[in-house]
């Protein structure tokens, strides 16, 4: 393992059906405490990458290592290592209460005191969730449901948080609020991998990779990419 690198992806190729690859030889390095955006147009392979890191999909070739060891292709084992995946489209359970949704983020915990402590930490980050803990998730606004999805990810007390398309379906002001909260989590020491179509992500992250047709076409500091012609071209 290279010094400071917690997640290393090397020549990763994978997909959903036999002989149909979505990612083609993708390589990335994520350092401890980093805030990295994975950008690209719809269909670029961003969510496929997130699912592969979190263990939902298995690599067909290449490797993913976590602190120098192979990362298991198993969502539960990956979560227990400290990687939390907040999926695209939020994926909350509308018929369950806010508190019940949050508890599912740490369903393996048997220590009730630790569970309560983690709930309180989530409520500190998102006070509105504490206020609405007993309400059904269906009653929340889109922005509040996104907060709930992130809060559920935080219940596993992760060291790395993968947030997939948090801006999807949200008004611009709510997008900024959510991304500010993600940035604050990073400031508190959580490594963040932000999957986004929206280039506003560059205003919050430190580094960015841009995917096009399942391949990394740009890897640079965020400030260097803001407003760049290369970035615009990658979305065409």
Kindly report the oligomeric state of this protein: single chain
Strand content: 25-35%
Mean pLDDT across all amino acids:
88
General shape:
globular
**Portion in helices:** 25-40%
User: What is the distance, rounded to the nearest whole angstrom, between the alpha carbons of the first and last residues?
Assistant: 36 Å
- Which consecutive residue ranges, at least 5 long each, have pLDDT under 50? none
Alpha-beta classification: alpha/beta
User: How are the strands of the largest sheet arranged?
Assistant: 6-7-8-3-9-10
Radius of gyration: 17 Å
Strand element count: 10
SSE order, one letter for each helix or strand: EEEHEEHEHHHHEHEEEHH
Number of helices: 9
Biggest sheet, in brief?
6 strands, mixed
Description:
The protein is α/β, with parallel strands linked by helices. The chain contains nine helices and ten strands. Strand 7, helix 7 and strand 8 form a beta-alpha-beta unit.
């Amino acid at each position: 393992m290279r010094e400071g690198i917690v997640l290393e992806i090397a020549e990763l190729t994978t997909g959903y059906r036999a002989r149909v690859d979505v990612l083609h030889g993708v390589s990335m390095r994520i350092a401890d405490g980093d805030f990295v955006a994975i950008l690209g147009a719809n269909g670029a392979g961003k969510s496929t990458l997130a699912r592969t890191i979190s263990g939902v999909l298995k690599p067909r070739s290449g490797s993913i290592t976590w602190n120098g060891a192979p990362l298991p292709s198993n969502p539960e084992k990956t979560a227990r290592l400290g990687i939390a995946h907040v999926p695209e489209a939020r994926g909350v359970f509308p018929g369950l209460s806010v508190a019940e949704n949050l508890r599912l983020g740490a369903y393996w915990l048997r220590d009730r005191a630790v569970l309560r402590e983690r709930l309180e930490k989530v409520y500190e980050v998102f006070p509105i969730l504490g206020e609405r803990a007993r309400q059904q998730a269906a009653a929340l606004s889109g922005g509040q449901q996104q907060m709930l999805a992130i809060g559920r990810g935080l219940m596993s007390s992760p060291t790395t948080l993968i947030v997939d398309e948090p801006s999807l379906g949200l008004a611009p002001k709510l997008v900024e609020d959510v991304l500010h909260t993600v940035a604050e989590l990073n400031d508190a020491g959580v490594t963040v991998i932000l999957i986004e179509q929206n280039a506003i992500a560059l205003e919050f992250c430190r580094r960015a990779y841009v995917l096009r047709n399942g391949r990394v076409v740009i890897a640079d500091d965020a400030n260097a990419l803001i407003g760049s012609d290369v970035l615009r071209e990658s979305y065409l």
